[in-house]
């Protein structure tokens, strides 16, 4: 029988309220013991709402509360300092994506986790969703993949708001933020591409002051002959999410809550549906998974080493955009 793990949530914004705080409340394996936000009002409101101590300083929280792990849901540029503080205190981390903002930071943090022996799991939730694991099995039935098409869009009314509007703070724009999920699937299913040609724009809201791209189009190619593209936009509605991989015998198409295998003419051969697409306890299930990683009873599917290619993919995409030439992501594996 495992002991209940004591968890603190750092960064009390949208994602903490949507997923992590309710997830901890539902988790049989973990309990919330403290919250932290640099915003005094948010720290106080979180402490009041969840009846736990609230902090504005993570180091004080780590010293006084000594949690088993921290869930970090902070702006991207703050991730590094949070992981460093936790590693210094030998406290494990469940880190909201992305793992890091560039390949150097990714390599530095991976080495730090290694050296201090802390476990870090990046919360890319599709890795914990059964349909995405099923898609991996279905891919074995379509022959050699030669085409991949990904699309992930939604409409955010003001792309200039907060840290997400600044490329320096967010480590990029929609590609580094929501695009991280599609990049994760691409790398999981097909590996790191050999060439990436990317272009982006921050022109959806004329007059608004932001430099983090609202839309990105990424062409990718593998030496095997497989090629395709990803379109990511946080300005172009409607909300859509789709990844299709086509091979010599057919396709696998995964959309929100459904995965289908098609024959070469596009006729459906089989499909699997998950209803609801994201059940209410999905966040708790991810937290429980991490508790089992800490107990040593489950492997960590999303540790630092698994995320070095993601940072390399993003660096190659942004380098390609700057040079208007294809870039090889492997050259960015630090
Ligand atoms: N997995 C997903 O689907 C998903 C969805 C949304 C957001 N996210 C991720 O979650 C993270 C947070 O995003 P969000 O939308 O909640 O952002 P947000 O801006 O709503 O919240 C971030 C919070 O962090 C706080 N903060 C800033 N610096 C801090 C520091 N040094 N110490 C403690 N708190 C600090 C801010 O005051 C704010 O309350 C990001 O990494 C984002 O990519 C993931």
Model description:
It is a single chain. The chain is α/β, with parallel strands linked by helices and 334 residues long. It has helices spanning 14-26, 40-50, 58-65, 79-88, 103-116, 130-138, 167-170, 179-190, 282-295, 304-323; strands spanning 5-10, 30-36, 54-55, 69-72, 92-96, 120-123, 145-153, 195-201, 215-221, 227-233, 240-247, 250-255, 258-263, 268-273. An eight-stranded mixed β-sheet has the order 8-9-10-7-11-12-13-14. The chain has a six-stranded parallel β-sheet with strand order 3-2-1-4-5-6, sandwiched between helices. Strand 13 and strand 14 form a beta hairpin. Nicotinamide-adenine-dinucleotide is lined by residues 10-16, 36-39, 42, 58, 73-76, 78, 96-97, 123, 125, 162, 177.
Give the helix/strand layout:
Blueprint: E1 5-10, H1 14-26, E2 30-36, H2 40-50, E3 54-55, H3 58-65, E4 69-72, H4 79-88, E5 92-96, H5 103-116, E6 120-123, H6 130-138, E7 145-153, H7 167-170, H8 179-190, E8 195-201, E9 215-221, E10 227-233, E11 240-247, E12 250-255, E13 258-263, E14 268-273, H9 282-295, H10 304-323
Parallel strand pairs: 1-2, 1-4, 2-3, 4-5, 5-6, 7-10
Antiparallel strand pairs: 7-11, 8-9, 9-10, 11-12, 12-13, 13-14
The structure holds nicotinamide-adenine-dinucleotide.
Nicotinamide-adenine-dinucleotide (NAD) is lined by residues 10-16, 36-39, 42, 58, 73-76, 78, 96-97, 123, 125, 162, 177.
């Amino acid at each position: 029988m495992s002991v209940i793990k004591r968890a603190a949530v750092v960064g009390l914004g949208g994602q903490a309220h949507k997923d992590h705080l309710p997830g901890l409340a539902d988790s049989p394996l973990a309990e919330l013991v403290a919250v932290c936000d640099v915003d005094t009002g948010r720290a106080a409101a979180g402490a009041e709402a969840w009846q736990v101590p609230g902090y504005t300083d993570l180091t004080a929280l780590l010293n006084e509360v000594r949690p088993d792990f921290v869930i970090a849901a902070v702006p991207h540029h703050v991730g590094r300092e949070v992981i460093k503080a936790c590693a210094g205190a030998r406290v494990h981390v469940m880190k909201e994506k992305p793992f890091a903002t560039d390949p150097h930071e990714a390599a530095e943090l991976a080495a730090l986790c290694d050296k201090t022996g802390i476990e870090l799991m990046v919360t890319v939730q599709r890795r914990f969703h059964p349909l995405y694991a099923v898609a991996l099995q279905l891919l074995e039935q379509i022959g050699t993949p030669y085409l991949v098409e990904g699309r992930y869009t939604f409409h955010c009314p003001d792309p200039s708001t907060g840290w997400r509007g600044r490329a320096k703070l967010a480590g990029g724009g929609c590609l580094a933020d929501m695009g991280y999920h599609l990049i994760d699937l691409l790398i999981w299913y097909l590996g790191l591409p050999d060439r990436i040609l990317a272009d982006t724009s921050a022109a959806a809201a004329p007059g608004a002051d932001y430099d983090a791209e609202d839309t990105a189009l990424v062409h990718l190619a593998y030496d095997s002959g497989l090629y395709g593209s990803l379109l990511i936009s946080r300005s172009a509605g409607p909300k859509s999410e789709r990844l299709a991989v086509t091979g010599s015998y057919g396709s696998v198409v995964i959309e929100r809550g459904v995965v289908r295998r098609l024959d070469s003419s596009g006729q459906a051969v089989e499909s699997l549906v998950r209803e609801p697409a994201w059940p209410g306890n999905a966040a708790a299930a991810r937290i429980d998974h991490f508790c089992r990683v800490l107990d040593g009873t489950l492997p960590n599917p999303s540790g630092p080493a698994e995320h070095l290619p993601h940072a390399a993919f993003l660096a190659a995409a942004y380098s390609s955009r700057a040079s208007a030439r294809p870039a090889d992501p492997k050259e960015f594996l630090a």
